[in-house]
Design a protein that fits this description.
Layout lengths: L2 H6 L6 H8 L3 H8 L7 H13 L6 H8 L4 E6 L5 H16 L3 E6 L4 H13 L4 E4 L9 H8 L4 E4 L9 E5 L1 H14 L5 E5 L5 H16 L9 E3 L4 H13 L6 E4 L2 H13 L9 E3 L16 E3 L2 H17 L7 E4 L2 E3 L10
Parallel strand pairs: 1-2, 1-3, 3-4, 4-5, 5-11, 6-7, 6-8, 8-9
Antiparallel strand pairs: 10-12
Helix pairs in contact: 2-3, 6-13, 7-8, 9-10, 11-12
């Protein structure tokens, strides 16, 4: 079949088709497409004209096997629609683009099984590295260990798993939680509930510890009845608030593990006619854009999401340039964004 016949029948045109048409070798066509100095100008011109005419597309997989690099980075996030994760991805892409890498983005939808599937798909696609924030269900790390076993750079961010050693980027979750609970105490709050994330995640554990230590510093007993394991979604903030109110537990403030949960808390309290902050003060963690839109505006812990992405991308590049180097663990600082949802005293 001639190259024209293949093209007209919607079959993919290959290097061999171009080589046969020009009566040259496949390697000559390949070198011509790469503008190799050993190929004459006339041959290069003929090859490029045919490639353009018949819309020749290089076989990226074959090229990557030859070069031992696909120039791609796999990224797995729990939920792509969250402002925090989309902003981290923007930071990763900024670094990747400048270094000549492409980014393949997958989401686990907070499901362990889906996380396993997409991670193995990215492994099969020969990504040069993986940057990931684990799902709320993830406890077993075998699917990530596969990358380490093959010496493929692996960087965790935000939600850092336990039971596996690798590179990581996070914020000081403990310090952020400590500061925001101390802020509530300074406003006069003494019965502060905490809605945690899943307790298998390091982030949750660190924020919970910061909450407890802030109470202890100010001689307020830690009451386990005021600690509710929640999740990371607005809907979970709503259902957990409804449960707490049904339990008829007396509180004057709620520290939510993240802003989506805090927004769910606030919507529920308002629906029940409870004033924020004078009935119950509410604070979150993330500084999601919705924090400034809801009424009253939400006090929260601001995380440098874009910078987290940049740091993760730079760690990947360092691991590529220095294979076998020590794992890099970077911890970024947070800042309080104090707004009306927690202000009980005049400054």
């Amino acid at each position: 079949m001639s190259i024209e016949d293949r093209y007209q029948s919607n079959k993919e045109v290959t290097l061999i088709d171009i080589a046969n048409e020009l009566n040259v070798s496949k390697s000559t066509v390949s070198r011509a497409l790469q503008n190799h100095h050993s190929i004459g100008a006339a041959t290069k011109k003929a090859v490029l004209e045919l490639a353009e005419k018949y819309n020749y597309q290089p076989n990226a997989i074959a090229a990557s096997l030859f070069k031992k690099s696909t120039k791609t980075i796999g990224v797995i996030v729990p939920i792509l629609s969250h402002y925090f994760f989309s902003t981290v991805i923007a930071g990763i892409e900024e670094v990747a683009y400048k270094a000549g890498y492409k980014v393949i983005i997958c989401q686990s939808h907070e499901l362990y099984e889906r996380e396993v599937i997409v991670s193995k798909t990215l492994l099969s696609a020969k990504v040069d590295g993986l940057i990931v924030s684990v799902s709320k269900e993830t406890v077993n790390m075998d699917h990530f260990q596969l990358f380490l076993n093959k010496n493929i750079p692996l960087v965790f961010f935000d939600r850092l798993p336990s039971g596996i050693q690798s590179n990581s980027v996070s914020v000081d979750d403990y310090e952020g939680a400590f500061k925001i609970v101390e802020h509530l105490i300074e406003q006069g709050c003494k019965k502060i509930a905490h809605f945690t994330g899943p307790l298998n995640i390091t982030l949750t554990q660190n924020r919970l510890q910061g909450y407890k230590d802030a109470l202890r510093k100010h001689n307020i007993p830690v009451n386990d009845e005021l600690i509710y394991e929640c999740g990371f979604e607005r809907a979970q903030g709503i259902t957990t608030t409804e449960k707490m109110l049904a339990d008829q537990i007396s509180i004057d403030a709620i520290f939510a593990v993240c802003d989506p949960v805090a927004i769910g808390v606030m919507l529920t309290l308002k629906q029940k006619g409870i004033n924020i902050p004078h009935g119950i003060a509410v604070v979150g963690f993330n500084d999601d854009p919705t924090a400034t839109v809801i009424d009253p505006p939400l006090t929260t812990v601001a995380q440098p999401a874009f910078e987290i992405g940049v740091a993760a991308g730079n760690i990947f590049l360092k691991q590529v340039s220095e294979p076998g180097g020590a794992y890099i663990k970077e911890v970024l600082k947070t800042n309080l964004a104090i707004r009306q949802s927690s202000i009980l005293k005049n400054s």
